[in-house]
Design brief:
By secondary structure, the protein is mainly α. The protein is built from 4 helices and no strands. The two termini are 13 Å apart.
Length: 137
C-alpha cells in the first residue's frame, strides 16, 4: 500500500454542528438533530472507505484487462450487477431507481479508469509513458 500524501494524512476541518437554521430552533431539537447527523456522518465515512476499497479492486481488474487487451466495459456483467442491486435495494427498502443510478455512476467511473489504464499500458508498450501502480486507478 502507498504512503498517504500530506492531504490524506491531515483531516479536513469539519464542524458537526454546522447549520444555517439559526436560533429559532429549540436546543433540545438541535441536540436530537445533531445526534441523528452523527450517525449519518459515520455512514458517509464508511461509504467513502468502502468506495476506496472497491476502486482498488476495480483497478486490479483494469490492469488485468489492459494486460490482456480486454474491453474496459462488460455490458453482460453490468446488466447482471444492476439487476442484482435493484433486487437488493427493493429488499432493503431502498429506491431501486436510486440504486441503479448510483451503480451506473460507479460503472461509468470504473470504465473511465479502465480506459485510462489501457491507454497508459499501450503507451508503456510503445515506450512513451511508463505506467506506475500509484498513478493508475
Amino acid at each position: 500500500m502507498t504512503e498517504p500524501t500530506p492531504a490524506q494524512s491531515q483531516p479536513v476541518p469539519f464542524d458537526p454542528h454546522a447549520t444555517s437554521m439559526g436560533d429559532e430552533v429549540a436546543p433540545e431539537v438541535y441536540e436530537e438533530l445533531f445526534a441523528m447527523r452523527r450517525s449519518i456522518d459515520n455512514f458517509d465515512a464508511a461509504l467513502v472507505h468502502i468506495l476506496a476499497e472497491r476502486f482498488q479492486a476495480t483497478k486490479r481488474v483494469g490492469l488485468l484487462k489492459a494486460k490482456h487487451n480486454l474491453p474496459a466495459g462488460d455490458p453482460g456483467r453490468e446488466e447482471a450487477q444492476i439487476a442484482r442491486l435493484r433486487a437488493m435495494a427493493k429488499e432493503s427498502s431502498l429506491d431501486p431507481e436510486f440504486a441503479e443510478k448510483f451503480l451506473n455512476f460507479i460503472i461509468s467511473e470504473v470504465i473511465r479508469h479502465h480506459m485510462r489504464i489501457a491507454a497508459e499500458q499501450q503507451d508503456d508498450e510503445q515506450g512513451e509513458n511508463p505506467i506506475s501502480a500509484d498513478h493508475a486507478d
